[in-house]
Amino acid sequence: MRLAKYLAHAGIASRRAAEQLIADGRVTVDSEQVTDPARDVDAHNDVRFDGRPVRAEAHAVYALNKPAGVVSTAHDTHGRPTVVDLVPEAGTRLYPVGRLDADTTGLILLTNDGELANHLMHPRYEVPKTYRAKVARPPVGERALRALREGVDLDDGRTAPASVRAVRADVLELTIHEGRKRQVRRMCDAVGHPVLALRRVRFGPLALGDLPVGAHRKLTAAEVERLRAASPSPRGRSGR
């Protein structure tokens, strides 16, 4: 296995970040400083990062139904509960794949696979995410729906077209490929229907299903492979 990939599998950093760490001379293999990220290593090599032994961990991916009030980070300086706290038996360092606002609920993924996390979140791969939004001032008219589908102007630029349908007079289902901060809330604000409650129900090919609020489950190997297949290569245009 290439050294950069080995570090990524160990949860040190994403593969790209690991390449920089290696180039900076912070990694040794069998007591020798190595600056080539393509150097082949395996479990028999003594790989160290900043002098600390590195062991590639078995990859794990969990789906969590995030409750409101829980933050989407591995650690919180304010002492608030985190999504990682809700998977105490993982036995490995987990990191959330992207973020949900503290007041947004629903599906979030946690993993120690930096490469998979990068593919799922990088804008150029355009992995879709689907949300259910309960909105104010119903019903949502055709003009607002058309604006969301065509893209709306926000303070950080125009959004890419979204897939939108009205589930009820006061509930919209929106699928977006971008990952801007509070994007769905800002989009709905822009068309005159502020969000009252927001829940993510799908991430790429993975649906939230009937997973209870606050509960989690480890994904099967088949589910992980479907996630990998959701972003096999760039689609030729970068996300906005």
Query: Roughly what is the average pLDDT, rounded to an integer?
Result: 91
What is the assembly state of the chains in this entry? single chain
User: How many separate domains make up the residues?
Assistant: 3
CATH H-level name of the largest domain... which superfamily?
Pseudouridine synthase I, catalytic domain, N-terminal subdomain
* Global shape: elongated
How many β-strands, per DSSP?
Answer: 15
How much strand?
A: 25-35%
Residue share in helices?
Answer: 10-25%
Q: Look at the structure and give the CATH class of the largest domain.
A: Alpha Beta
What is the correct CATH architecture of the largest domain?
A: 2-Layer Sandwich
By CATH, the topology of the largest domain is: Alpha-Beta Plaits
Supply the helix-strand structural class.
alpha+beta
Structural write-up:
Residues 232-240 have low confidence and may be disordered. The strands form 3 sheets. Strands 5, 6, 7, 8, 11, 12, 13, 14 and 15 form a 9-stranded mixed beta sheet that branches. A 4-stranded antiparallel beta sheet has the order 2-1-3-4, with no helix packed on it. The protein is α+β, with helices and mostly antiparallel strands and 240 residues long. The longest helix has 9 residues, at 15-23. The chain folds into 3 domains: 3-53, RNA-binding S4 domain (Structural Genomics Hypothetical 15.5 Kd Protein In mrcA-pckA Intergenic Region, Chain A, Roll); 61-123 and 206-229, Pseudouridine synthase I, catalytic domain, N-terminal subdomain (Alpha-Beta Plaits, 2-Layer Sandwich); 128-203, Alpha-L RNA-binding motif (Alpha-Beta Plaits). The protein is 21% helix and 26% strand.
